[in-house]
């Protein structure tokens, strides 16, 4: 059996383990350790496992993951998201499809603090779905706006997907965060434009919400000032080069604790839940990164990574052709795998090609994040869809998927726009520190 055949067999086993339900990190570790054992033997493999675990655990960039996750969980458990919803509802509720617009804008704002798509869908869905049901919103539009709006949470910083990508590819997490701002705003605006256009054409899809006085609207803004200040300090500090993304995560976590305490919403229960969620998620990310690093080394030993680079180079696709092929690949994988599964499974193969084609890794981080967003609402796996169905079980899963379809078309259109105009993602990072 040739080395290349061993590499292909290892990848096939890894995909099979993930498809049958084994946690991604463990599937990667099984193939990575097993493959290295077969090629190197016990001694070198055990030394390599220890070295990879040490290098991953001592990575300074990885410190930001638990701190950003803790910050987001604390916002979730201290009901700051409810203040955001209340404010957006009072300002946008009277638009055509105003509650659906509120869901999208709230998801974007909530994502800017938490970076968690699941938390965004669960939190926003629990607040807006009863109101849209009361106002007789079209179930597909209502569900689609919430599930698709939740995807914005992993694009607008801080994003744990970008943290994993940055650690894996050794790309600046600060640059990735800043690169996600403008695409996140444009994509959110695209969602809002879609909702308003559909509701102007057919007002029955999304009736207008109740009227609020200007006094009520301005009062609602005051509640948002403290968390907005924390977000501006974190992102503004990274953008201005005042501190790194890792330092920003610590400042943000402390800032949210102070804000929650000042609003008299901080409790031991909220702290314990936030810390445990942060610890659990960080442990999961650590296992995935270690397992992925072992798989990557195994693929290098078999020569599979280099063979893929040479094969794609022989096709003469060029950067644009390769990216269009990746769109098709990620759409297919989105039907079978979750977000981290897609990310970690493809990076060992894709990054050598990205390097050979001289595609900017910061830009590619935004590209792959948007493609992963699509996987969150793509049948049959679409995690956001099942989270929303759990929050609002009266809406059929088939209706949620159908409601997400127009939003997925907007996302696909945005990906093509991103390929045509890479400055959308690269302009802000280029200005950092200037």
Share of helix among residues?
A: over 70%
Work out the strand percent: under 5%
* Biggest β-sheet strands, sense, barrel: none
Number of individual domains: 1
Sequence of secondary-structure elements: HHHHHHHHHHHHHHHHHHHH
Summing up helix and strand content along with how strands pair, one would put the structural category as mainly alpha
Task: Explain the layout of strands and helices.
Layout lengths: L2 H17 L4 H17 L1 H16 L6 H14 L2 H13 L5 H17 L2 H18 L4 H11 L10 H10 L3 H29 L12 H26 L5 H18 L5 H35 L1 H12 L2 H16 L5 H18 L4 H15 L7 H9 L5 H24 L2 H9 L3
Helix pairs in contact: 1-2, 1-13, 2-3, 2-13, 3-13, 4-12, 4-13, 5-6, 5-11, 6-7, 6-8, 6-10, 7-8, 7-18, 8-18, 8-19, 9-16, 9-17, 10-17, 10-19, 10-20, 11-12, 13-16, 14-16, 15-17, 16-17, 17-19
Overview of the molecule:
By secondary structure, the chain is an all-alpha fold. It has one domain (3-12, 23-431). The protein has helices at 3-19, 24-40, 42-57, 64-77, 80-92, 98-114, 117-134, 139-149, 160-169, 173-201, 214-239, 245-262, 268-302, 304-315, 318-333, 339-356, 361-375, 383-391, 397-420, 423-431. Helix 7 packs across helix 18 and helix 8 crosses helix 19 (397-420). The relative contact order is 0.15. The mean pLDDT is 86.
